[in-house]
Amino acid sequence: MLSASLREIREPGRSLPLLPDAPLPPDAGWAVGNPTVASAVARSYAAFEAAGERALSPAVRALVRQRLDGWRGEETGLSREWCEDLIAALPEPDRAAARLALLTALASYQVDEETVREFRLRGHSAADLIDAAAWASFTAARRVGGWHLPA
Predict the structure, then answer these.
(1) The pTM is what?
(2) Helix, strand, coil % (nearest 5) of the chain?
(3) Do you know which InterPro entries this protein is assigned to (predicted)?
């Protein structure tokens, strides 16, 4: 027998108030046909952006976005040289965060204890770590999702 909670009728959009209302970004136009889905997508996109703003400097976010703009899904390889080359132009205090974000977005298998330790040594909290990783992974997923939109 099903529990009462499993038999309960669920109204679409019931959880929308858990996140603040937000505008639908242009790259989420695929959701326009369903107002409930569009609202949920807009709110979640905004929540991930807010996480990135809390944990990462504008320069780090811009660098990750710039790298993702030219990315077509190719592997980065086993070396981190590509990452180190990209972060070299950043001020020293941003490099550990940029390394974490770039590796999370493009080569998550390369995020190791040292990557996390360096990020934390720069004064970032555990919450910052979660926010940075969430933003970077979602930003990469959003990029991949954009490959499937009509031009």
Answers:
(1) 0.89
(2) 65, 0, 35
(3) AhpD-like
Answer yes or no: are the C-beta atoms of 13 and 39 closer than 8 Å.
yes
Is 7 inside a domain boundary?
no
Asked if residue 100 lies in contact with residue 117, where contact means CB atoms within 8 angstroms, the answer is: no
Overall number of domains in the chain? 1
Can you give the C-alpha Rg of the chain in angstroms? 18
Domain of 55? 24-146
pLDDT digits (tens, 9 = 90+) for 102-147: 999 999 999 999 999 999 999 999 999 999 999 999 999 999 988 8
CB 68 within 8 A of CB 105: yes
Is the pLDDT at 10 greater than 90? The verdict is no
Q: Which among 54, 47, 55, 52 has a CA at the least distance from the CA of 120?
A: 55
Euclidean distance between CA atoms 75 and 55, whole angstroms: 26
Say how far apart CA 66 and CA 79 lie, in whole Å.
20
Asked whether residue 9 is domain-assigned, the answer is no
- Does residue 79 sit within a domain? yes
C-alpha distances in angstroms, 136 versus 24, 26, 35, 145?
19, 19, 27, 14
In a domain, 81, yes or no: yes
